[in-house]
Amino acid sequence: MATRVRSYSKINLGLAIGPVRADRFHGLTTLYQTLDLHDLVTVSARRAAKTRLVLTTNHARVPVDGRNTAWKMVERCLERLGVTAEVEMSIEKNLPVQGGMGAGSANAAAALIGLERELGVALPGAARLELAAGVGSDVPLFLLGGAVLGLNRGEQVVPLPDLPRIACLVAVPNVGVSTPQAFRDWDGRQGPGGLTDESKADRLMELSLAYASLYAEPGTSGIVRSLNPEKKQGNSEEIQSGVPNGLAENTLLSLVRTGVENDFEQVVFPAYPSLRETKRLLMGTDSEAPALYAALSGSGSALFGLFRSDADARVAQQRIQSAATQAGVRTFLTETLPRAAYWQRMFAG
Ligand SMILES: C[C@@](CO)(OP(=O)(O)O)[C@H](O)COP(=O)(O)OP(=O)(O)OC[C@H]1O[C@@H](n2ccc(N)nc2=O)[C@H](O)[C@@H]1O
Ligand SMILES: Nc1ncnc2c1ncn2[C@@H]1O[C@H](COP(=O)(O)OP(=O)(O)O)[C@@H](O)[C@H]1O
């Protein structure tokens, strides 16, 4: 029987780009958060004398050969295990391609999880993370889920205590942004806005510390209110009923005060000006269900807003859907997905 895996997505709550490294990748400090929006990856595998992979998908822009992240992962995992097998995979795409939501990366992690289950084997945890990092900088985070600190080129992941669930509206413009191109544009920036390598490195450190400080003992920093421990995990019912989620709001506002932002906005917004307008509409104004925070995710093109309640997120959805400048922008109402829920809901039966 085949294994069906929910291949969830991520947003980058914040992302700072550092200097170019010797391997030509950029140093990053980023705060990933998984979202309750997913593709479906189905894997069936049986041991065989020779390895044979077959991949199908419902999306024209997803490659079905060795360029596919899921294919790469399965091929490398079998090699690592010293196993030959016939593997059939299908990817049902619901998430945007080149959206900055890590969908292709998540597909690779889902393929690994599905393959292990099908073959009844499990690689050691560190080996899985190493394989994932080899497939892409964004893949290891999907072997943790929840709130994850990304360092080095984004592939070095540190699980963070869960942030409370919060209502989220994702807006996906009708353009795909190439990640390598966005990095090249960042490197090409000249003039007063450009940072020196030294100040870029300082900023990476500064943001790592700021993200870690979010988890300081409540009450000691004066930022996160003293809490009822039972409510520490947040509560999705609160969000669904439209009741404001005070804990999530507090934590998020703390994050905003740390100066969280996404450096890619500085190069992606000038290249695609309508994205800046999408962010403005997500944010809203004080009188019209404003977002607590809105930003570009990764290198885009998806943007997201985080809201006090599901009801506020719906109002923002209306704002975008009725704006003449936003034709072709798709919106998805969802919420952030903490680590325990990420793993509980992983298998689609
Ligand atoms: C920058 C992020 C933020 O989440 O962008 P999104 O793709 O999500 O938008 C990710 O780290 C992307 O991760 P992923 O898409 O797996 O990237 P990779 O395949 O590892 O790299 C694609 C290309 O991006 C550039 N790259 C990537 C990561 C990094 N730290 N520095 C880089 O310069 C390199 O040119 C590399 O060849
Ligand atoms: N499983 C996959 N799903 C989607 N795109 C893939 C996959 N494997 C490789 N790709 C290629 O990777 C590129 C970007 O992948 P994607 O993960 O959708 O973007 P992002 O990292 O911006 O979220 C696409 O242009 C596509 O050709």
UniProtKB/TrEMBL annotation:
One GO-annotated biological process of the protein: isopentenyl diphosphate biosynthetic process, methylerythritol 4-phosphate pathway
GO MF annotation: an example: ATP binding
Pfam families: GHMP_kinases_C, GHMP_kinases_N
Catalytic activity: 4-CDP-2-C-methyl-D-erythritol + ATP = 4-CDP-2-C-methyl-D-erythritol 2-phosphate + ADP + H(+)
Key words of the record: ATP-binding, Isoprene biosynthesis, Kinase, Nucleotide-binding, Transferase
Domain GHMP kinase C-terminal: 262-322
EC number per UniProt: 2.7.1.148
InterPro entries, sorted: GHMP_kinase_C_dom, GHMP_kinase_C_sf, GHMP_kinase_N_dom, IspE, Ribosomal_Su5_D2-typ_SF, Ribsml_uS5_D2-typ_fold_subgr
Pathway(s) annotated for this protein in UniProt: Isoprenoid biosynthesis; isopentenyl diphosphate biosynthesis via DXP pathway; isopentenyl diphosphate from 1-deoxy-D-xylulose 5-phosphate: step 3/6
Residues forming the catalytic site: 10, 138
Domain GHMP kinase N-terminal residue range list: 68-146
Major enzyme class: transferase
Superkingdom, natural source: Bacteria
Function (record text): Catalyzes the phosphorylation of the position 2 hydroxy group of 4-diphosphocytidyl-2C-methyl-D-erythritol.
Family recorded in the similarity comment: Belongs to the GHMP kinase family. IspE subfamily.
Name of protein: 4-diphosphocytidyl-2-C-methyl-D-erythritol kinase
